[in-house]
Structure formats: C-alpha cells, structure tokens
Design goal:
This protein has helices at residues 36-42, 67-81, 94-105, 124-129, 132-151, 153-166, 182-189, 224-230, 245-248, 250-263; strands at 2-7, 10-15, 21-25, 47-51, 87-92, 110-116, 207-212, 235-239. The chain has 267 residues and is of the alpha/beta class. It has one domain (2-130, 200-263): Rossmann fold.
Length: 267
C-alpha cells in the first residue's frame, strides 16, 4: 500500500502493509529521505509513516515551528495514520527530542519507541557527565547553526553546509539549507517559545536504543543504558558508525530494528 496526504502543508507518505504503524521523525539536516532503507526493510510487515519536518523542505518557504505546534502536528498525523491503535515511533537526532516530548504528552498514542543516537538528552545526569570540552564543542556548533538561521540566505546555507560537512553528515549538501537550523535557534535563543520545560526522558515504553560507537561524546547519560537494561521490553546496541546509523550501516541497523519489532529481541 502507498498513499500520500497533506496536513498543514506537510506531505505525509504511508507505505507498507500490516496493522501496526511506525511513525518516523528525522532530525537535522535531513528529510523523510533519511528513512528510505528502513522503509524498504519494514514495509512488508508494517505501515511506515514518514514526513519532512516543517521548514526542512527546501522547496517550501522557511518555517520555524514551535514545540507546541510540532507536537500538535504529530498528534494529527498519528491520529490519521492509526486512529484505533498506538504507534511505534522511530526517531533520530532532533526527531528524538521532539518525539520523546510527543510521547510524554500523548503516552496512550505510543506503543514503543526506536530511538537513534539521542537518549536521555535532558537528564541532569547527562549534563553532569559532559566534559568541559564536550560542552564547549556542543555550544560552538549549535550556536553556529543558530546564527545560520538568523542570517539566512546564501551565507546561512554556506554556514549550514560547512557544519554538516564538519559533523560528517552523509546527506547530499544540495538538500541542506539554513531553513533546517531553527531547532538550534529554539534551543539557544528561545525562537518560537524555545524548548524549556520538556519532560525528562525515561524508559516509560519499550525502547530500542541504537547509538554510534564512533562518537566520542555519547548523547546519553552513563545511567541511560543501565536504565534500559532494567526496564521491561527495552534493548540497546552500539553500531560501528557515526551519527547517521541508518545510512552508514543500513544492513545492521535494519536487522536490529526488524528483529526487535518482530520478536522483542535483538539479533
């Protein structure tokens, strides 16, 4: 099955068979194309629902969107895609930040979560564990991308693409633009109401957490993996990749996801 519909000028694609829906939310600097390989691996047994975040489609006008508006959009997508049953969330990067918050606000609409490379990002233990060097590095690249949003235009594009290259992003630079950087401006400058007050991330649902082994700074606290070990239905695995696991090791990534979704275990 393949269908497409539009909500609030966001194009939503639904592919696959089966009663269970997987709603996929990407991060920076990506689009729904991030999920091409996972959809191909899952669509024979699951309905894969994906979309490009508002403002990340370079064919449309820039559109910084508040956290409340994003959560409202996700709720409408979930309700249309799976009106009678909770969904699986598949999240990466900023998609984890936004998706965790959706789950916290709408816990009855989420059955389980596949999260990629961002764990308990807002836990006090995570902040305490960051070294000074890691903290300064995070501030540096995130403020740089925030400034790309405010500058916009050709300079904003150059800044954004340069940082994507520095961060090792495998996405085609032609599909990367300054319009995608507004989450960083939300984080550091309070754009569209900012990101204060998000619920602390915890394994309230079965979670499969896949993360990069190559990143020096892990985007989860030292307590996150033990918390998953202790929580029913949760699992985790590190893959020998950078931040974009599903692009850098698609076979291993898809095998972990499909086996866990089918059986609750890892291969």
């Amino acid at each position: 099955m393949h269908e497409q519909w539009t909500l609030d000028d966001v194009d939503v694609q639904v592919e696959g068979a089966g009663t269970q829906a997987i709603v996929m939310i990407h991060g920076w600097p990506d689009t729904l194309r991030l999920w091409d390989a996972p959809v191909a691996a899952l669509r024979d047994g699951y309905r894969c629902v994906r979309f490009t975040l508002p403002g990340f489609d370079l064919a449309k006008p820039p559109r910084a969107t508040s956290l409340d508006a994003l959560i409202s959009l996700f709720a409408r997508i979930v309700d249309r895609a799976s009106p009678d049953a909770p969904v699986t969330l598949m999240l990466h990067d900023w998609g984890c930040v936004f998706g965790y918050e959706f789950a916290a606000r709408h816990p009855d609409r989420v059955a389980r979560i596949v999260s990629v490379d961002v764990g308990d990002h807002n836990a006090p233990a995570f902040r305490r564990a960051l070294s000074v060097r890691a903290t300064l590095g995070a501030i540096g690249y995130q403020v740089w991308l925030s400034m790309a949003w405010f500058l916009g235009g050709a300079l904003g594009d150059r800044m954004t693409r340069a940082m994507a290259r520095v961060r090792g992003c495998p996405t085609d630079p032609r599909r990367i633009g300054w319009q995608m950087t507004y989450p960083y401006a939300m984080r550091w400058f309070g754009l569209r109401g900012g990101l204060g007050g998000t619920a602390t991330v915890s394994p309230r649902w079965p979670i499969l957490y896949l993360y990069s082994l190559r990143r020096v700074t892990k985007w989860h606290s030292p307590q996150w993996l033990p918390a998953l070990d202790a929580a029913p239905g949760c699992a985790h695995r590190g893959l020998d990749t950078g931040h974009w696991l599903m692009l850098e090791a698609p076979e291993a990534f898809n095998a972990c996801v499909r086996t866990w979704l089918d059986t609750g275990r890892l291969p």
